[in-house]
Amino acid sequence: MRTAYRVLAYVIAAVVAIQAAAIGYGVFAQLNWIDKGGTLDKATLEGSWPGSGALIFHALEGLAVFIVALALLIVSFFAKIDKGVRWAVIVLAATFVQIALGTLSHLVTASGAVHGAFALILFGLAVTAAMRVHKPSSVAEATPAQVA
Amino acid sequence: MAGRLSTRVRLIVALAATLVILAPIAWLWQSSLVGNSYSVMGMGYLDYGGGPSGSHDHGSQARSVNDLVVDPARKADVRVDLVAAQQGLVIGSKSVPGYTLNGTSPGPTITVREGQLVEVHLRNASVKAGITLHWHGYDVPAAMDGVAGVTQDEVAVGGEFTYRFVADQVGTYWYHSHQVSNEQVIGGLFGTLVVLPKAGRGDAVDVVATAHTYAGMKTINGAASDVKVPAKPGEQVRVRVINTDNGPIETWADTPFRVLTIDGYPINAPTEVTDRSVTVTAGGRADLGITMPSDGKPVRVQVSKGTAVVLGTGDPAPPPQPTAALDLLTYGGPTALPFDPAQANRHFDYSIGHRPGFVRGAPGLWWSINGHLYPHVPMYVVREGDIVIMHIDNHSGELHPMHLHGHHAVVLARNGVPATGSPWWIDSLNVLDGETYDIAFVANNPGIWLDHCHHLKHAAQGMVAHLMYEGVDTPYRIGGAAGNRPD
Fold this sequence. Notes:
B: seven-stranded mixed β-sheet
């Protein structure tokens, strides 16, 4: 379970990095296409154009992060990692906030800026959670083995 | 011993916590499943809109949607054969996968006269998922509405279906597949329907401009280039703009123009538009009227930024896009409606949201209708002759082009502000995020009708409700052996 915890936490960090790569690819593919004469308006936006697949991937993978974060929380109940549950809750909450910021950015553009920056925080939280696995359990520290 | 007990307690707490998280998720997931085959008649919950609910009968006494046809003995005035195929398309210099009708996309423009009985014979040559034809904006008898799993079974490869309806609405309309429509319409399975007045064309030049985006390439009438149309000084030109995409387009011109119709219905007393674009929502249509300049200058009508109709001789530069769109709420002159919305006896809400949950077992952020996710959406129940007011409220974060089948509604108000211009009749309405609309219509076309978002990917994601007439039933089912997938 400790390994599962560590792997899931690193998976979250990895998917966040892939998310960043996807949105970067999508934006630049779109700009290059417009440079070559492509026209982007709402009608095109709702279809497909170079880079649209990356943007769709970005949106769908957001849900994947949430599902993995939920799995991390469940695993944390069994993993006996010092403050493991706490960090899993923090990662899950941060994932929720990140999705909310992304969704809200359709209404409030500035939210999109926070969404971009918050990805770094989520990445850091996931890595920190993964690194908890290497720390000795506080339970073990509190109850040292008896020596005859 | 204490350590073992502690371990057990810890395990029990962990299992309980897991259950607390997973149980509601499992329940939500299970309740979102629709099965391999289901009827829309059993979907969601009945909403009577404050009207009577006494004789809700969908049993043995109910009329089948199959019976709602034009007189079978009446002979057709116009016959059209359409053969659908799944094949590659060449758009500009690119080849893209797609669909054709009679070898082209868009399919042939069907032009008929008011009052004629139109008979369209459809054959599926090679569209693997099957097809249907829906007459978008045309208030056909219910059996002819062309929605797979609601008014017919999809037409499988080698299969045939004949659509018959009387062309009693003059104007600009279109037809498209309503089987896996989110793929087939985008892929080109559509065409234009033009119904001329009995007296014939009233304009010297009549141009169809069907806008579609194929794999990111903007086109008019299937060509990724401007459409050039001869027109002489002083001539009256009608440009029929049809938006077959999933999102709205803007259209404008370098010469003053009038908006003659919206969604096929005339604008009363249209005035000249000079510094505004016209928003044509997904699935919507707008006829623009232009008088060619007497000095012989050509006219450029932009159909979105990428494509244009050029009238006359020459190659005028694209005019800049106006910074604002024409407000149809105040455009044209008021005139009496054919019914009194104040006498409405059904009042429905169509409130569009966006929330997490499950649709057909898949987790995600989904569109909700009145707070519910598909299939737990309202079934709006009416009785023939009812006057209906529908309040549309979009707080979903995105715009939605709302399309009601089988009826035309008039816009009464937007954001609570009453309409003061010409009666603004719609079958496809651009509802921006944060907007509300009040629309009214007469329930004068018995059947079972979709009332859905015409961003067809949104429809496939469950943004579909239905308008149902009392005493009408359907034998068709979504899914099942027929493989009906209307969205």
